[in-house]
Amino acid sequence: ATGVPATEEQEARLLIEVSKTYDTLGEWDKALENYHKVAELGQKLGQKEIRAEALKRIGHIHSMRGEWEPAIHQYQESIELFREVGNMREVGNIYNNIGFNYFQNGNMEEANQYYDMALEIGEDVGDTQLLADVNRSKGIIADMEGRWDEAIAHYQRSLPQYEALQDAIGMASTYQNLGMTYAHQHNWERAGE
């Protein structure tokens, strides 16, 4: 250690990293406490991206707890800030998160609207991970609603995206979903592939 005191910006970035660890360990109260401090520091310093990151992560914790409305509120606040600093990749990821919250809350129409916005941004910024994840999510909704051909189309779009990312878990999950959709169609031959 150099003995040089950290700047408030460095402190905020360090608190984000510490909070991520608490979040990963399921210590959500400690993570929330730190993320709130980071959000305040970001506000004080005029660092919109730091504040946006903290608000996004607060939204994530509310989402993990099944607290959909507070999660969506925090996500919406972070979207405004990420837009202001031009970080559209994060805006797309947060739209995907909001879509997931609406999905978990049983509001498929709102979920699809947010997934569509995430897809548009994913295409604009070339975010293959976002495109793969959203296509799979839209496939799940279409399958649940009995729109099986649409579900299959979404899954088939996500598979090469996951393959390009070498995301074996994403591919496996999508193949499983695809098989279930074929089973719903009573297409046993395709379901077993």
Describe this structure in words.
With 193 residues, the chain is mostly helical. 83% of the residues lie in helices and 0% in strands. The chain has ten helices and no strands. The chain has helices spanning 8-24, 28-45, 48-64, 68-84, 88-104, 108-125, 128-144, 148-165, 168-184, 188-191. It is elongated, with a radius of gyration of 19 Å. The model has no long low-confidence stretch (mean pLDDT 93).
Q: What key attributes describe this structure?
A:
193 residues; mainly alpha; 0% strand
What is the distance, rounded to the nearest whole angstrom, between the alpha carbons of the first and last residues? Answer: 57 Å
What amount of the residues lies in strands?
under 5%
Low-confidence stretches: none
Largest sheet: number of strands, sense, barrel closure: none
Radius of gyration over C-alpha positions, nearest whole angstrom? 19 Å
- Average pLDDT over all residues: 93
Number of helices: 10
List the secondary-structure elements in sequence, H or E: HHHHHHHHHH
> What is the number of E strands?
0
Secondary structure class reads mainly alpha
Q: Could you estimate the helical fraction of the residues in percent?
A: over 70%
Write down the overall geometry.
Answer: elongated
Can you give me a brief rundown of this structure?
The protein has 193 residues and is mainly alpha-helical. The protein contains ten helices and no strands.
List the topology elements:
Elements: H1 8-24, H2 28-45, H3 48-64, H4 68-84, H5 88-104, H6 108-125, H7 128-144, H8 148-165, H9 168-184, H10 188-191
Helix pairs in contact: 1-2, 1-3, 2-3, 3-4, 4-5, 5-6, 5-7, 6-7, 7-8, 7-9, 8-9
